[in-house]
Structures are given as C-alpha cells and as structure tokens.
TrEMBL record:
CDD domains in UniProt: EFh
Example GO molecular function: calcium ion binding
The protein's name in its UniProt record: EF-hand domain-containing protein
Pfam families: EF-hand_7
InterPro entries (alphabetical): CIBP, EF-hand-dom_pair, EF_Hand_1_Ca_BS, EF_hand_dom
Keywords carried by this UniProt record: Calcium, Magnesium, Metal-binding, Repeat
Segments forming domain EF-hand: 62-97, 99-134
Amino acid sequence: MGSKITRLSEDKFDEYSELTYLSRKEIIRAYDKFKSCDPIEFSNNLDVRFAREKIMMLPELRVNPFAKRICDVFSSEKDGKISFEDFLDMMSCFCERASRDVKVDYAFRIFDLNDDDYISPEDMKLIISKLISPHELPEEHLQCIIGNILIESDMDNDGQLSFAEFQHLISKSPDFFK
C-alpha cells in the first residue's frame, strides 16, 4: 500500500503535538479520518466544519449512544459542526495518554445533557435510558438506581451532582479510565 499524502505543515504538526496528547502518527490518522467524512468538501481545507451527522458516521461514533452529545460538546462554535481542530481535541481526549482530569472534565460535560453545570436526576435518567432499553428497566428500578447514585455521591444533598461530586464518583471507578 502506498503512503497517504497529508497536507499539514511542520508548524501545524508541531502545534497539534504541543496542544494535544496525540503523536504525529495519530494526528495523521485523525487527519485522514476527518477527511474521509467528506473528501470533496474537505479538499485539504482545515477550516471546513462538518455537520455532526458526517462525523457521527465514523465507525468509532456510529454505534455510540452519546455520539450526538459528544459532537455537541466538542463543537467549538456550539453549533454541532466540527472543525479539524475540534476533531483533534475529541481524538486527543479519548486517547490513552489524555490525563484523567481531561477525561473526567469531558465526561462531565457530555453527561450534563442540559448544560447547567450539574448532572441532574433527569440527566441521569436520559443517560441510563441511552445505555439500557427502557423496556428492560421498569421506571421504579430506574428511580432506584438514580437514588442510589445520589445517596452515594451527592455530598451536599442538593439532588444533583456537581463537577466535584462527579469527579469523586469517577475516582472510585477505575474501569472508567480504561
């Protein structure tokens, strides 16, 4: 197989290597993946912003129940469109070398479905519903799960999880970081 031509300058590689947790090889892979969303529209234009629907067609996101929300969180313009740099941020966050703090920060933002800086019982209900079919989990069991999460993690008893409470909850879940 021949090598792919990447139209990134050395300065851009240096900048992206400095600002992300990605290696040069991973940056090239991200570039190729981003370009594959719409090669004609991309045409080596790093300023192009793809609609989230194009990004969500990538195999890594296609079956992810949070794909739309992930795209919304990583959209720098908050319009659901993803630039190459937004895409690099996304890839960087999900790579092995990203710090725990970065992973927790983005997980919180993804799970804070209404962007109010808290994970509310309604957010939790929607999150659980995305992971488990509603027919498989009766409402009373869903409420019991949410209640147990709050009993375990809601330190200030305000009925929702702040970032600090979420961070504490996640620190007890080593599998989260794998």
